[in-house]
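Hi Q.,

Before the meeting this afternoon, I wanted you to have the iron/sulfur cluster prediction in hand. No need to reply - just skim if you have a minute. The sequence and ligand are here:
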Amino acid sequence: MRFQLSIKRDKIFINVRTHAISITLNTFTVLTFDKEGRLIWAYLDGYTFRRSFDNRVIEKYRGSENGQRYRIRKELDEKEKRIFLDNVYSGIRLIYEAIKKGEGNINFPHNVSSNYIEEVEKALSKVLTLNYDKLEKEKRKFLSIYKPVSILPPDQYLTLVLQVTEGCWWNRCTFCDFYRDRKFKVKNDEEIIKHIKEVREFLGEGIWLRKSIFLADANALAIPEERFLKVLDIVNQEFPIISEDLEGPDLSKWKSEHPLHFSGIYSFLDGFIGGRRSTEYYRELKRRNLKRVYVGLESGSNKLLNFLQKPNNAEEALEVVRTIKEAGINVGVIVMIGIGGEDYFEEHVKETVKVINSMRLGKGDFIYLSEFVGHPELEYSIDASKLEIKALSQDRIVEQIDSIRRGLDFTDPENPPKITIYDIMEFIY
Ligand code: SF4
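Predicted structure with the ligand bound:
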């Protein structure tokens, strides 16, 4: 299956970095492993694969039919996954043996030190400690440390998740069943410290492929203020996180002392709890390296938010975003596309554009346009079917995205926020 290796014929390029190992074959295949040898990402001749800690593999590629290009993404079934991972890991064994024997067309980056081949051998031997069965065993270990990581913003797929809370305090939005399997729980200090210790042990050197720290689950910022400040203190004590206060020589010194570090702390927040916090409180969070907060606006239409049973209205979400931004923290605003179907199409576009345009978003902020993904048992689907709400066709989804994009207008057009599609079907951790 799509990964065959011929040591004599293939040109193999190996790059071992501080946080990852990359292997390129003939430029058509790239495999990336973390420093514990876990396959994280692969590109095989037009197909992209991402592997999660719970050993799921998502495949993505572009297809075409009747001259139309479209994207396919699907999770490999058990059989496909085993074949894929067996092929990858047995390919690495061939490469490792070829290096040992001094055979094959193997290349390394320029200007590497004389012991680089030893480093490569060491890194590959780490990869070879794993195989399909061991990755399945790791999955069980992962699930004993974490509740399933249900969702993250797309710019945080390579984050280090710390579940300082579990679940969602509200858990009633009709379109969301991410956390219906668990009760909301705020962990105490001992539990957080234990969780961090277990996460570190599990990830080993692989931790350095993670760029940031994400406090999960749905709404870690719902933790009462004093407690949350303490949580941030614990996280800052446990991990080197770059502070925005550092500049010039101080920043260079800090970086030389912490060559491996995290970019900041990130988390979701709902518009109800978020609105009960002051700018000064958010400034305290910023001082503790909270860099971006993700707020699920979903829609600017109160009628639609009410129908979806969101805990807040659009004005509250707007106020939260303004308060957070006033404190100097960036935001990621999530808008749901297609929700409310044809019945809400016009109002959803009009009110969402109005609210976002009042948020004063700029550089460092994100707007995520996330297509609603449902299933027949979802409360929203049942409500929509009772009211005979017509779902949007794929063309109308595109039209809604375009209409929202066209309506957006930013105070500083030179430094706009980043607008991006948020495809939750691609998510794995
Ligand atoms: S507040 Fe967020 S996580 Fe909680 S139920 Fe609503 S959408 Fe889901």
